Amino acid sequence: MAARCVGVLALQGAFREHVSAVSRLGVAAREVRQLKDMDGIDAMIIPGGESTTMGKLLNEWHMLEPLRERIMQGMPVYGSCAGLILLCRTIENSDQPRLGVLDATVRRNAFGRQVDSFETELSMPEVGPDPVPAVFIRAPVLISVGPEVRVLAEVKGQAVAVRQNNILGTSFHPELTPDTRLHSYFLNMLGQ
Amino acid sequence: MEQGTIRLKTGLAEMLKGGVIMDVTTPEQAKIAEEAGACAVMALERVPADIRAAGGVARMADPTIVKKIMEVATIPVMAKARIGHFVEARILEAMGVDYIDESEVLTPADDKYHIDKRDFTVPFVCGCRNLGEALRRIAEGAAMIRTKGEPGTGNVVEAVRHCRQVMNEVRVLCGLPEAEVANFAKEIGAPLEVCLLVRKEGRLPVVNFAAGGIATPADAALMMHLGCDGVFVGSGIFKSGDPARRAKAIVQAVTNYKDFAMLAEISRDLGEPMVGIEISTIPSGERMQERGW
What we know:
The structure holds 2 protein chains of 2 kinds.
Chain A: E1 5-9, H1 15-24, E2 28-32, E3 43-46, H2 51-60, H3 64-72, E4 77-80, H4 82-87, E5 88-91, E6 102-107, E7 118-122, E8 132-136, E9 141-145, E10 150-155, E11 158-164, E12 167-170, H5 181-191
Parallel strand pairs in A: 1-2, 1-3, 3-4, 4-12, 5-6
Antiparallel strand pairs in A: 6-9, 7-8, 10-11, 11-12
Chain B: E1 2-3, H1 6-16, E2 20-24, H2 27-36, E3 40-43, H3 48-54, H4 63-72, E4 77-82, H5 86-95, E5 99-103, E6 124-128, H6 131-139, E7 144-147, H7 157-175, H8 181-188, H9 192-201, E8 207-209, H10 217-225, E9 231-233, H11 235-238, H12 243-255, H13 260-266
Parallel strand pairs in B: 2-3, 2-9, 3-4, 4-5, 5-6, 6-7, 7-8
Helix pairs in contact in B: 2-12, 7-9, 10-12
């Protein structure tokens, strides 16, 4: 099997941290800024940042449709925070550009403003036996999910980590912690 | 569950990287900024060019203006407090502002002490001209740094100077033998512990944005090439002929700062840029970059 390469969408946000996490696990990562950067990638990470900014730039540079097609064909994709928002089919009170491949409805800024941001630990048996450190920054939650979506973690009864086949999403930021288990979990999705 | 940790404070700045933060004075301007793809807005009563023109004492904005902007924007909203004015900062924190800029653009309230930013839940961004100043602000609790530049002039020369200065000093520090770091810390007037941290990481411990004088997409891309993580644009947008187009162009330029053919496309037909002020014509007492200690 040829060496695998993970694309990290680098239009805006914390893409450097995702590149670093993937590289630490010994897999090549490439920053994706334009359509041509998507040639030859085997998976895509959409980082934290501002979902409105990223959605507009994806739309403006005609990357939204090609990326959606790749995901529909089965390419693994992982979205954290803003990335999760862009994956969702429905964004509450918003018609902002999105990929819409994840059968779920997301509420932006669900916990309040920056002063309400928090750190905690989550039980995620699929990812590992020990709790996963989770950094929530102006985080969204999924207020409803479709039948194909498996909930991997919850906070106060609301889904904050989900998987639907080749699509993984978390409303928190594993890339801001030294713990790479979520990235390992995602990289395992490439082999299946 | 923990709140107000340094990881949460610096974490929000990490999410702003590669983005443009725009000064806005009305909800309408905030919508234009969000539409253009700004990653955050700075709520103000006046943009820096108008603060210069108006003279007098520049203070924290009226909470009504800040609140109105918070109501329409779904992206983070920042607001400015005067240097050392911890009560203005507590008011902004109580209102739920996402980031506070302890800013030399406003008239300083304290000519000796900056705000002790460590025990606030809300994160702060502060300005700097050199590494010593950046590291003093970080030691006081700043979770994000920006160049001071010369706000309200549309002249990028000071932002370039400050950015190059900080980057050069980081390179010097990282090349020093450990035994010489204490003396370096003394010379630049920064705490030893923070100097050692920079040397270990090989970079500033927080996000560093460009600010003060950015007026065109080319200016914004230039600052990214010099090593900034993103840009603040104030008067450069809403003092130009076509704010919506210019705002969008600057957002696109920051993402694709390495693609010069694309920058050429982005820079076309943007209408009149702000007129601007040559720095040497500003009396030294009116230079905002001289404020802060």
